[in-house]
């Protein structure tokens, strides 16, 4: 009775209907607002960083490049130590859409509902340095309290690990190694 005085019936029905219609879309997640991202400054040209992103497909023990055709790589990856779900296997496609961007999206998975993101390279200091940004969105389909926060915390760790690996690979490829030969004297 008190509720109906404060919240008229028509307005209540409208709000309830709107909530029911919007809820399925909200449950799917909003990749823009729910994506996790981080950036790192790399002491290498965007070209070297781009090549390092492609190289990491070969050196990450959890990843296996299944195919590479044109500007598309299909990656098979095992994820372990994931909160709530433990392990997951997925196959996704990385699309080298431009010299400054590599996008990826899920093809199939035993546990993930959605997995997508983008590597973005921004040249700095006349092209001698690169700001590397990695954004990633993961939807596991697990419905537990704080599922989005738990998932994003795990994704953040993975994003930082991947950025660190690419930074090391890119900067190692630009290192000048001075080798000199000295005669041994006795």
Describe this structure in words.
Helix content is 38%, strand content 37%. The protein has 186 residues and is α+β, with helices and mostly antiparallel strands. The chain has a seven-stranded antiparallel beta sheet with strand order 1-7-6-5-4-3-2. Helix 4 (46-59) packs across helix 5. The longest helix is centred in the C-terminal third of the chain and has 28 residues, at 147-174. It is globular, with a radius of gyration of 23 Å. It starts with a helix and ends in a 12-residue tail after the last helix.
Please outline what is shown here.
This protein has 186 residues and is an alpha+beta fold.
Distance between the amino and carboxyl termini: 104 Å
Largest sheet: 7 strands, antiparallel
Assembly context of the chains: single chain
Shape: globular
H and E string: HHHEHEEEEEEH
Share in β-strands: 35-45%
Question: Helix/strand-derived class?
Answer: alpha+beta
Question: Uncertain runs with pLDDT below 50, 5 residues or more?
Answer: 9-29
Radius of gyration based on Cα positions: 23 Å
Order of strands in the sheet with most strands: 1-7-6-5-4-3-2
Kindly list the characteristics that best describe this protein.
7-stranded antiparallel sheet; single chain; alpha+beta; 5 helices; 7 strands; 38% helix; 186 residues; globular
Provide the fold topology.
Blueprint: H1 2-6, H2 9-28, H3 31-34, E1 36-42, H4 46-59, E2 63-69, E3 72-82, E4 86-98, E5 101-109, E6 114-124, E7 129-139, H5 147-174
Antiparallel strand pairs: 1-7, 2-3, 3-4, 4-5, 5-6, 6-7
Helix pairs in contact: 4-5
């Amino acid at each position: 009775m008190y509720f109906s005085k404060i919240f008229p019936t028509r307005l209540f029905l409208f709000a309830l209907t709107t909530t029911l219609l919007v809820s399925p879309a909200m449950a799917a997640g909003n990749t823009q607002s729910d994506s996790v991202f981080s950036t790192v400054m790399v002491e290498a040209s965007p070209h070297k960083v781009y090549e390092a992103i492609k190289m990491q497909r070969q050196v990450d023990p959890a990843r296996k490049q299944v195919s590479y055709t044109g500007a598309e790589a299909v990656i098979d990856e095992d994820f372990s130590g994931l909160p709530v779900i433990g392990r997951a296997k997925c196959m996704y496609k990385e699309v080298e859409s431009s010299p400054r961007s590599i996008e990826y999206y899920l093809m199939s998975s035993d546990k993930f509902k959605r997995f997508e993101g983008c590597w973005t390279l921004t040249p700095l200091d006349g092209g001698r340095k690169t700001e590397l940004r990695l954004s990633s969105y993961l939807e596991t389909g697990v419905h537990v309290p704080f599922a989005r926060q738990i998932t994003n915390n795990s994704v953040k760790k993975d994003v930082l690990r991947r950025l660190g690996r690419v930074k090391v690979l890119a900067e190692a490829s630009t290192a000048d190694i001075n080798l000199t030969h000295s005669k041994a004297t006795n």
